[in-house]
Specification:
single chain, Arc Repressor Mutant, subunit A, about 375 residues, elongated, six-stranded antiparallel sheet
Length: about 375
């Protein structure tokens, strides 16, 4: 039978228990304790979301969240493996909560993706039993099957947690993951790797737009009408797009095999590919050339030469479509010594010359509504 409490009532019990005993509980343990004490409600309380909720400051919105009901349907079984059916309501693909504070550290795994965003204060992020501090504006995205935990050590820090079904992630957000750039490719490879635990981390400087997306997700989670799930999917899609557009340079990855931040290598390649050699890249990062070749192949699916060529061709297409630069100027900009060499490679990739490609894909200019031709 489903029972109810509110974020505020639950957190008040957590705070009180910790102050009285100096001990912490996990979320399901506290829910069971509240149920035993008769503190759970049989029906949810009604919450009216004010129209100005998105313009509230963090503390005001957090007080609003205190009044939102929590729907409790699953019982605690002591397992450290949490299935999505225990966390995500059956009619939802994306589900957002405010992370409970003062919980006892207990590493666990689950079969869905988890996103954590530190809105205010800080939290301790445990991954493979290594702890690092997450601060305001930091985002972690944790792949299924990864052993982890997030612990908020004080009563005022605010963290939003978004749970996304694995099937939904792969079907709905694949267009974002398959953008033709190195970091998106690495993002896709890491998060879909079923063999090893993985996460990625970004820093948003606590951008207000990101926080508004998350507030909307919390509100839609509470609405639970026939539109809510689609709204949640679209909102998290917008959130991811915002992250990749504005903060991709802040991405860092965990990789069990490499045991280093390989995204730095990818970023270096992306910014220096025009005149980069394998030997200079290996020297810069203190790798042997064979080992570096293996890492590049493992994490991008391409060998070094093909990777550089794909970056050059992508940039070439952008320049051909969006500038009036001459072919020899484009060739020089992307790292070819001659226009002839560039043209041969381009024709081999796309079956036409750069000039033909430009003619077929030329962008005539901005569309002006209601304009008339002279």
């Amino acid at each position: 039978m489903i029972k109810y409490t509110t974020y505020g009532k639950f957190q008040s019990e957590m705070n009180s228990y910790y102050k009285r005993t100096g001990m912490k509980m996990q979320f399901p343990e506290m829910i069971a304790r509240m149920d035993e004490k008769g503190l759970m409600d049989q029906s949810p309380s009604y919450v009216r979301i004010p129209l100005d909720s998105l313009s509230m400051d963090d503390e005001e919105f957090d007080k609003l969240v205190d009044s939102i009901p929590l729907h409790i349907g699953a019982t605690y079984n002591g397992s450290n493996e949490i299935g999505e059916d225990k966390m995500i309501p059956s009619l939802f693909d994306v589900f957002t909560i405010r992370h409970p504070r003062l919980t006892r550290h207990s590493s666990h795994t689950h079969n869905y993706f988890e996103l954590n965003f530190v809105v205010k204060g800080s939290a301790n992020f445990y991954f493979e039993e290594t702890c690092r501090k997450m601060n305001e504006g930091e985002v972690s995205i944790i792949a299924p099957g990864s052993t982890h935990d997030l612990v908020i050590e004080d009563e005022t820090s605010i963290v939003y947690t978004v749970c996304i079904r694995r099937s939904t992630f792969e079907s709905t957000f694949s267009s974002l993951m398959y953008q033709q750039d190195l970091l998106s490719g690495f993002f896709r490879t890491m998060l879909k790797d079923e063999k090893h635990s993985n996460y990625l981390m970004l820093f948003t400087e606590n951008n207000m737009e990101c926080r508004i997306f998350l507030r909307k997700l919390l509100i839609e989670t509470e609405n639970q009408d026939s539109y809510s799930n689609n709204c949640c999917i679209n909102l998290i899609n917008l959130f991811f797009s915002n992250l990749l557009r504005n903060y991709s340079k802040t991405i860092s990855f965990y990789n069990y095999d490499i045991n280093s931040d390989f995204s730095l290598v990818l970023q270096y390649i992306q910014h220096n590919y025009q005149n980069l050699t394998l030997s200079s890249l290996a020297e810069f990062f203190h790798y042997s050339e064979p080992h570096l070749c293996t890492l590049i192949k493992q994490n991008t699916g391409k060998n070094y030469t093909d990777l550089i060529k794909s970056l050059r061709m992508k940039n070439a297409k952008d320049l051909l479509m969006n500038t009036t630069q001459k072919i020899n100027e484009i060739a020089e900009e992307i790292g070819y010594n001659s226009a002839d060499h560039f043209s041969r490679v381009f024709r081999g990739e796309f079956g036409m010359s750069p000039a033909e490609f430009r003619k077929q894909n030329k962008i005539d200019g901005p569309f002006i509504p209601f304009s008339t031709e002279n």
